[in-house]
Design goal:
The structure holds two protein chains of two kinds. Chain A is an alpha+beta fold. Chain A has helices at about 10-15, 15-25, 35-40, 65-75, 130-135, 155-160, 165-170, 205-210, 240-255, 265-275, 295-315, 325-335, 340-345, 360-375, 405-420, 440, 445-460, 475-480, and strands at about 30-35, 55-60, 80-85, 100-105, 110-115, 120, 140, 175-185, 190-195, 215-225, 225, 230-240, 260-265, 285-295, 320, 350, 380-385, 390-395. Chain A is built from 18 helices and 18 strands. In chain A, the strands form four sheets. Chain A has a seven-stranded antiparallel beta sheet with strand order 15-12-14-13-17-18-16, with helices on both faces. The chains are: A alpha+beta, B alpha+beta.
Chain lengths: ~500, ~400
């Protein structure tokens, strides 16, 4: 494990028994888990290279319990790591040896479905797909659809600001959440937003989305639901090079078309996936594009013919339009099974998540190929082409000495490259533990200090999910200090009136 | 002592804030000043005029991204996008005429700092949803950046959301990057006439809950209908806009008309009238005339299906209309010095949401809460956030709430 977590607090560990007892008084029965064997399922999330048994697991059922647990931990100086379904790919829910793991799975009620206002009010432990399923009878759905949507929870989606293949047109979690109930580390409960649009004051809800469980614990979420489009059709296009595929993506958007989804796969990904799911992908192409259009039939047909035309102008080798819902789902089956398919051919893999300006794709793919040779590790690329979000899958075998380290180094080099070409470290998986020590690639000391001061406003003791996101922990007292001396600064030569 | 500092570049903005910090001066931040009369009256020593920071620094239409210095006129950006068949999808409203100024003013920085949006808010989001990256100077005189130039980005906290709608109280933005989108090829509107407010909200809910992909929904009651452009007759009109490729608009227009017929008589607006109508909705036109400007004006955001309940909770002498499918209510109160905050705040408390007193004489705004008062815990949290950015209260102190 290349990333080091904060040293456990021996004084807290020494008080473990008393802490467990106090927590049992707040959350009775099976809500507190303290044996090593029973805590095993909680020792890692989707980033399985990192594991840690927590000090104790607490599974509260009510906001009141969450508030009391946090207030108690705040008073006692005990760290807390919140967890949804544990599908984070960046280690956001990695436990701490001296911390409480706060599992939110029991918050699984859908509290209110309000079609007149087109919102659903749900508890954070409700899975992403369950929201869509609960409103499907009326033709509605919840738009953000991360690949893990069967398992991942809305609370985790808020923490990570999850995306999915359709966020090009329908936005990420932050664009689809209208309100939440939030418990601060000191136990205070605040409500942000509601069924209305926009914040009354500072957009703290916008800040909570993507805050990776560092600012508060969400106990209720109000999400927008949308009526499903009449028709969805997909086009499968093969290209002789990633340059051609990239040019096609740009021309489609340049023509004023925003598809519901636009996904790309490279040669390695196509072959691995086709062997697994037999989706009928062409095997003689270098890049494959899935373009999905949705809307009324008249619109979809119109746009599909334009996409076909553009594809032809971009030297497409194959172009198939789905003619039935089964065929559309078949086109997607390969893309959706990509991670599983890679898991079949390699004992372990890292799924990276950088975003780049789309035009830089050919350059980034070429450099990644070079790195793959240098590191002696295979890489398969799946890519949210419409918004430039790359998911290189780096294949390795943890049982081969040195491969894990090499894979991590390879991944870090890929992300540094993303930043170098004008992109960012993570598009939708979060910084977590995985990319924490790369934050300096994107942000200066001042940038990071400003973000940490936001953290101080919510959690001045730094007890909520420490060791994630920020490479260096600094005390709020130190961050709060002003470094300007009064009155002695030279007045600059600025025009005045 | 002079009262306006006008920096020429980002470094001078940082210098000015550092100077203010060192000399215990408070700064009023403005771009073109088009929204200067909104908020609690300024209690500042100097004005920091950011309108000298102009110019589009990056525009890549096929990447849907544009960067500009914060003081760049909004009109310049909109004209550039127009040339490339693109637009700001959040359709920022224009406060100029409402506040007695010119139409077409404002800067991109001011647009974001006040989180503007327009009728398309219900489909495309507000300025916050299109704000990708920023460089700004905090009240600590530190230049920081957040976000980037790509749409999908969860690297670090989303400070852009925090700055959007912070009314210049946290930082002075110097450079911004926004997401831009293609302009729809065609538009049309479907309207139903003669509905009362409750029935109109029900009709709009039905339309919004359909697969017609409505991009704007407003109800214009009969007492204000005559002020709007593009309406066939000055009667109560519930209007729904459709945008997209021509075959799609044609198809949805027919589907929506069929859906709405059970509510009342249906009429169709062609592209030209539709565009005129929505421009006047976006400008809040009924309340822009010299006489109407005497009336204190409230902007209320609430659950769309409940917007119409306001009618029964405030004086019948108030004038009002609904945007955002009933979720945005513009209310003009009858007497210049009496915004009747108690009634409005009470009503909003009942319905949920928030109210902003966007127009009233300065003496009134000094004595009342302009923005929605917050519960104690949330107010304290907001104050701590402010102190993180601006511990000495150098930037627009007190514009949103006293002490923030």
């Amino acid at each position: 494990m290349a990333v080091r977590m904060p040293e456990p607090d021996t004084q807290v560990l020494a008080r473990r028994e008393a802490i467990v007892k106090a927590l049992r008084a707040i959350v009775p029965g099976e809500g507190v888990i303290a044996t090593t064997r029973e805590m095993k399922p909680f020792e890692s999330d989707g980033l399985t290279a990192y594991r840690q048994t927590p000090m104790v697991v607490v599974l509260p059922e009510t906001t009141e319990q969450v508030s009391q647990v946090l207030a108690y931990c705040h008073g006692e100086g005990v760290k807390v790591v919140p967890r949804g379904a544990g599908t984070s790919l960046s280690g956001g829910a990695l436990p701490l040896a001296d911390g409480v793991l706060l599992g939110m799975a029991k918050f699984s009620r859908i509290k209110d479905i309000d079609f007149a206002n087109r919102v659903a009010v749900v508890e954070p432990g409700v899975t992403n797909l369950a929201v869509s399923n609960a409103v499907a009878h009326a033709g509605f759905y919840y738009a953000p659809d991360p690949s893990s949507q069967i398992a991942c929870t809305i609370g985790g989606n808020v923490a990570e600001n999850s995306g999915g293949v359709h966020c090009l047109k329908y936005g990420m979690t932050t664009n689809n959440v209208l309100g939440c109930e939030l418990v601060l580390m000191n136990g205070e409960v605040v409500r942000l937003g509601g069924k209305h649009l926009d914040a009354a004051g500072f957009d703290l809800l916008g800040l909570i989305n993507g805050s990776e469980g560092l600012l508060g614990v969400v106990t209720e979420v109000t999400v927008r639901i949308l009526q499903k489009a009449e028709t969805q059709r997909a086009v499968l296009v093969g290209f002789p090079s990633s340059e051609d595929a990239g040019a096609c993506v740009s021309r489609i958007i340049g023509a004023g078309i925003i598809p519901a989804g636009m996904e790309m796969m490279d040669r390695m990904a196509i072959h691995v996936v086709e062997e697994f799911v037999h989706a009928g992908y062409p095997l003689d192409v270098e890049a494959l594009l899935i373009v999905e259009l949705d809307g009324p039939r008249a619109e979809v047909d119109h746009l599909i013919s334009r996409v076909e035309q553009i594809a032809k102008q971009c030297r497409s080798m194959t172009c198939r339009v789905s003619t039935s819902e089964e065929e559309r789902l078949l086109f997607w089956s390969g893309r959706k099974a990509a991670f599983g398919a890679v898991g079949r051919i390699s004992p372990d893999y890292f799924c990276m998540d950088g975003t780049i300006p789309r035009a830089r794709l050919p350059q980034v793919l070429a450099e990644m190929k070079k790195m793959s040779e240098q590191y002696g590790l295979r890489v398969a690329n799946v890519f949210h082409a419409g918004d430039g979000n790359l998911h290189p899958l780096i294949l390795y075998d943890a049982n081969v000495p040195g491969e894990l380290d090499r894979a991590e180094q390879f991944g870090a080099d890929v992300l540094k490259l993303c930043v170098k070409v004008g992109g960012v470290l993570t598009g939708e998986h979060g910084i977590g533990v995985e990319k924490r020590d790369l934050m300096g690639e994107m942000f200066s000391e001042l940038d990071l200090a400003a973000q940490q001061r936001v953290k101080c406003a919510f959690d001045e003791k730094g007890l909520l999910n420490p060791g994630k996101v920020f490479p260096v922990l600094r005390s709020c007292a130190e961050l709060g200090r002003m470094h300007v001396s009064g009155g002695k600064l030279p007045f600059p030569d600025i025009p005045r009136f | 002592m002079t009262d306006t500092l006008k920096p020429r570049d980002a470094q001078e903005v940082e210098d000015a804030v550092r100077w203010a910090l060192g000399n215990d001066k408070a700064l009023e931040l403005i771009g073109q000043g088009s929204k200067r009369a909104i908020g609690r009256p300024s209690q500042t020593d100097l004005t920091l005029d950011l309108s000298g920071l102009t110019g589009v620094t990056l525009y890549e239409p096929e990447e849907l991204v544009l960067s500009a210095r914060a003081g760049t006129p909004l009109s310049e950006i909109e004209a550039l996008l127009e040339k490339n068949n693109q637009q700001l999808a959040f359709e920022p409203m224009d406060y100029g005429p409402l506040l007695g100024g010119q139409a077409g003013g404002g800067t991109i920085g001011g647009t974001i700092a006040t989180n503007l949006s327009g009728p398309r808010r219900i489909k495309a989001g507000a300025a916050r949803d299109h704000f990708l990256g920023v460089t700004c100077v905090t009240g600590r005189a530190e230049t920081i950046k957040s976000g980037g130039r790509v749409v999908k980005n969860v690297t670090g906290y989303d400070m852009c959301k925090l700055l959007a709608g912070s009314w210049g109280t946290l930082a002075a933005m110097t450079d911004v990057t926004i997401k831009v989108l293609p302009k729809p090829e065609a538009e049309a509107s479907v309207l139903v006439t003669g509905l009362d407010d409750a029935r109109a909200c029900a009709a709009m809910a039905a339309a919004m809950g359909s697969s017609c992909d409505v991009s704007a929904a407003a109800h214009l009651p009969d007492h204000v209908a005559s002020y709007f452009d593009g309406l066939p007759k000055p009667e109560a009109s519930t209007v729904l806009r459709l945008e997209g490729v021509a075959p799609s608009v044609a198809h949805r227009k027919a589907a929506l008309a069929a859906l709405l017929r059970p509510f009342g008589p249906v009429a169709l607006l062609d592209e030209k009238d539709s565009s005129l109508l929505w421009r006047s909705v976006r400008q809040v036109k009924p309340f822009t005339s010299e006489a109407a400007r005497e009336r204190p004006l409230w902007r209320i955001s609430t659950a769309p299906a409940r917007g119409h309940e306001l009618v029964d909770l405030i004086t019948p002498a108030a004038q009002m209309f609904y945007d955002w499918a009933g979720g945005l209510v513009w209310v003009a109160m009858p007497f210049a010095h009496e915004p009747d905050a108690a009634a409005i705040r009470g009503a909003v408390k009942k319905l949920g949401g928030h109210a902003t007193l966007v127009r009233a004489p300065a003496s009134v705004r000094a004595a009342l809460d302009v923005f929605e008062p917050q519960a104690a815990g949330l107010a304290a949290l907001s104050k701590r956030v402010k102190e993180g950015f601006d511990p000495k209260g150098v930037l627009n102190p007190g514009r949103m709430w006293a002490g923030v």
